Amino acid sequence: MIKLNNIQKAYHIGKSEFKVLKGINAHIKEGEFVSIMGSSGSGKSTLLNVLGILDNYDSGEYYLNGTLVKNLSQTQAAHLRNKFLGFVFQSFNLLSFKNAMENVALPLYYQKVSRKERNKLALEYLDKVGLKDWAHHLPSELSGGQKQRVAIARALIGKPKVIFADEPTGALDSTTSLEVMDLFKGINAQGITLVVVTHENDISKMTDRIIRLKDGLIVTEEQETTIINQVILNK
Amino acid sequence: MFNRDNWQEIFETISKNKLRTFLTAFSVAWGIFILVVLSGAGNGLRNGAQSQFGNDAANSIWVDGGNTSMAYNGLKPNREIKLTNEDFSVLKDQIKEIDNASAIYQGHNSKTLSYKKEHAGFLVRPVMPDHQNLECAVILQGRFLNMNDINNYAKVCVMGKPVKEALFKEEDAVGKYIDVAGANYMVIGVFNDPGNNDNNRIYIPLTTAQRAWNGKNYVETMWLSTGSAGIERSEEITKEIRQLMARRHNFNPADIDALGVYNNNVQYARTMGMLDGIKIFVTIIGIFTLIAGIVGVSNIMMIIVKERTKEIGIRKALGATPLSIVSQIILESVFITGAAGYTGLVLGVALIEGMRKIGVNSDFFKDPEIDFGLAIFSTILLVVSGALAGLIPSIRAARIEPVVALRED
Known about the structure:
The complex is a heterodimer of chains A (235) and B (409).
Chain A: E1 2-13, E2 16-28, E3 33-37, H1 44-51, E4 59-64, E5 67-68, H2 74-84, E6 85-89, H3 100-109, H4 115-128, H5 144-157, E7 162-166, H6 174-189, E8 193-198, H7 201-205, E9 209-214, E10 217-218, H8 221-234
Parallel strand pairs in A: 3-8, 3-9, 6-7, 7-8
Antiparallel strand pairs in A: 1-2, 1-4, 4-5, 9-10
Helix pairs in contact in A: 3-4, 3-5, 4-5, 5-6
Chain B: H1 4-16, H2 18-52, E1 60-65, E2 83-84, H3 85-94, E3 100-104, E4 109-115, E5 118-127, H4 131-135, E6 138-142, H5 147-151, E7 156-160, H6 161-168, E8 177-180, E9 183-192, E10 201-205, H7 206-212, E11 218-219, E12 221-225, H8 231-249, E13 259-263, H9 264-307, H10 309-317, H11 322-357, H12 372-399, H13 402-407
Parallel strand pairs in B: 5-10, 7-9
Antiparallel strand pairs in B: 1-12, 1-13, 2-11, 3-12, 4-5, 4-8, 6-9, 7-10, 8-9
Helix pairs in contact in B: 1-11, 2-9, 2-11, 2-12, 9-12, 11-12
């Protein structure tokens, strides 16, 4: 589903250059539930943004579902995001002036689904995340966990192939975090590929595979094993 | 792009962001409102001043008899100067610029007019034939007075449209006889005068009145128009008239109380100059109001786009194309400014019309009119400038990577 060949990206601040991704190679298969881990500044969020076509990259190749994602126009990128991808953000990113149902329905607006149809579907998806009774509440009237579930319903409604979640539990307490992860597991069970960025071990442990980033590079499998062993030994 | 769903999304966004909608709408509506009211009031001032001249010949001179205030040639002051038919003839002969001249005797008296069982009080003004040209009166039926009527002391009258309607209703008036204070006069014509209040009267021959009311050859007022003579020449003419009359009536030419000479040319030029000043003033205020409106709308649009950067980022993450982002912002802006401009126009028109209805009229303010062309042009100007002001930042916001837009707060 996702194939990365030597992805590099640098930020330019004034005349100096700061390399964030220094050559990422990875392969994520369809239906996988992957977490990307790393300390802050390791480039994990940048990698996720590149994967989600929310940001561009400097060199290398990124294949999404077999198509090369490179130098796309904004319009092409918008169509890809709309058709293939769903997003869940740490800060939820709901539109404050739309109620839960309208927020969930928004991706379908850009798929030219009629208003009646998309509101009906939005209610179904809100039901799936257990928020049907909250459909007409504004985001400001919802708790953090509820907001994130609305965001998940919004990510799901476009029937994406891949859902990217950037620290989805970062702003939630541990109980609601677990609820959100349970939702993700259920989504993954339906065959949707899931990529979660997190810095919490508890969260990443619930995924099928962990990709660890350090200073803009993926830490190799062997290194990973030793790190895991060290963790076990330390306990 | 222009389907119903799109508009629903736009209306929803507008109605759920009331403050910013109000701010944009208010600056546009206020600008157009001020502009409409200003131009309406400007026209009202103009109409008011113009009505002061009652659509009479503007290049005219009035001459009235008066009382001397200076001793002259052994004559005591406070002597009454009575103008006569001979004075009138002399003036007409001596001053070659005069193209129309009328003389009036006892022209300010209302009398009871009767026809069959209808009675009404109207002004009866004895005049000369040229009076029609001086008043700019239009003959609707029959004819105006002529020199034959004057020479023959004819008992005829020409009546204003309202007089005819009061006495004759639907009936034809020309050729019928009416009773004017006990004497019968034949109606020879009906006129309409575009000037203020100049219709509620009848005209009879000067000579007829002088004979009927024991007026000898006295004339109260002479009214002369000076053709194409300019302001300077007309001022000279007023001096010549004074000199001429002073010689004939034996008074000091410097004695301004002995003879009243009013030059409408000067008055007219002064008023028109003032009106042009008002017009320029109103235009300048209008232009500055428009500029303030344009700056206000542009500012608000730029702030709105900046404020919405995060929303744009979210929408893009969910699959919005740059075109859909830009078109949504521009359509929202055009809709709000257009509707607000229309509201301002309607309110301004309502105020001006209200002033007309309750009759806020005075000597210098009358019948305010609205320049719709100007109002609609200004609305379009504000709509376009709002759209342009929103276009540049919204294109920029639609072009940046979504991740940058999402980072905004």
